[in-house]
């Protein structure tokens, strides 16, 4: 598997079935599809590395404004590949696996483009972490979310980082300590996901949200996403100081001038990305 997977349309059927990660671009939206349905889209080292590399490539691609992270088959992501983990029970292998996972999650957060999870089924352990890390998430009504590591003697410590930043402390602890799955509706109440859609409308509603966002200034989206995560880690005074400087820098951008002038002149804006 190369670091940059070919677009799905460019792959023959046999290769399409074997490629662990697929990419499709349309209207400023890149859809990345986890394609290990037989393995419940478990995050093998190869899949995590391929996904991280593709995110870095998208970060440099001016034709893409928004990313959708989807998955093939009935399960969104079952977390780490436990068979791969136990195939080499060494400290070095475990450290390499969890470091790769952390690098992937940071790549999503640091990507200067919004990432939307499209969750059609179960998202467990590092799969739940993946959903919590994405900027937005739309789930099918049948989707379920869990951090069940405690049930097999492996506390979901790295998923905890993303989960505890997406939902309140007590709901996060309940999920982590019990391992119980929560429904899509409950996940929305907790703030883990944004929207719940019927299964047959999931892709359409996710794409509609992605295209709505993709119509905005790509520069403004990049500034806003970076600022959102940066200020969240600061104290209140520091956050306001940082946000004020960010607003000033944003106001000096050509797209802000264009957007405000277009609003005052009652016409659609023409974004230049600068």
Automatic annotation (TrEMBL):
Matching NCBIfam families: PRK08139.1
Free-text function comment from the UniProt entry: May play a role in fatty acid biosynthesis and insulin sensitivity.
The protein, known as: Enoyl-CoA hydratase domain-containing protein 3, mitochondrial
Alphabetical list of Gene3D superfamilies matching this protein: 2-enoyl-CoA Hydratase, Chain A, domain 1, Lyase 2-enoyl-coa Hydratase, Chain A, domain 2
Pfam families: ECH_1
The keyword Lipid metabolism belongs to this UniProt entry's keyword annotation: yes
Entries under PANTHER family matching the protein: ENOYL-COA HYDRATASE DOMAIN-CONTAINING PROTEIN 3, MITOCHONDRIAL, PTHR43602
KW Transit peptide (keyword) present: yes
Annotated source species: Inquilinus ginsengisoli
Swiss-Prot/TrEMBL keywords: Fatty acid metabolism, Lipid metabolism, Transit peptide
Stretches that traverse the bilayer: none
UniProt family annotation: Belongs to the enoyl-CoA hydratase/isomerase family.
């Amino acid at each position: 598997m190369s670091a940059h997977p070919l677009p799905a349309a460019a792959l023959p059927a046999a290769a399409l079935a074997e490629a662990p990660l697929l990419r499709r671009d349309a209207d400023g939206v890149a859809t990345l599809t986890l394609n290990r349905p037989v393995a419940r889209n478990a995050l093998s080292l190869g899949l995590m590395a391929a996904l991280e590399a593709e995110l870095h490539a998208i970060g440099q691609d001016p034709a893409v404004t928004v990313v959708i992270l989807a998955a093939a088959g009935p399960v969104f992501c079952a977390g780490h590949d436990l068979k791969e983990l136990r195939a080499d029970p060494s400290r070095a292998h475990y450290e390499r696996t969890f470091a790769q996972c952390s690098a992937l999650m940071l790549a999503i957060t640091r990507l200067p483009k919004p990432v939307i999870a499209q969750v059609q089924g179960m998202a467990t352990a590092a799969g739940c972490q993946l959903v919590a890390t994405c900027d937005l998430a739309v789930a099918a009504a049948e989707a379920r979310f869990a951090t069940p590591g405690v049930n097999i003697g492996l506390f979901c410590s790295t998923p905890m980082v993303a989960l505890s930043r997406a939902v309140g402390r007590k709901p996060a602890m309940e999920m982590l300590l019990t391992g119980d799955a929560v429904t899509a509706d409950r996940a929305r109440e907790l703030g883990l996901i944004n929207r719940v859609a019927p299964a047959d409308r999931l892709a359409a509603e996710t794409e509609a949200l992605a295209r709505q966002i993709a119509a905005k200034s790509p520069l403004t989206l990049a500034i806003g996403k970076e600022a959102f995560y940066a200020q969240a880690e600061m104290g209140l005074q520091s956050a306001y100081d940082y946000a004020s400087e960010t607003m000033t820098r944003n106001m000096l951008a050509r797209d802000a001038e264009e957007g405000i002038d277009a609003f005052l002149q009652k016409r659609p804006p023409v974004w230049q990305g600068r």
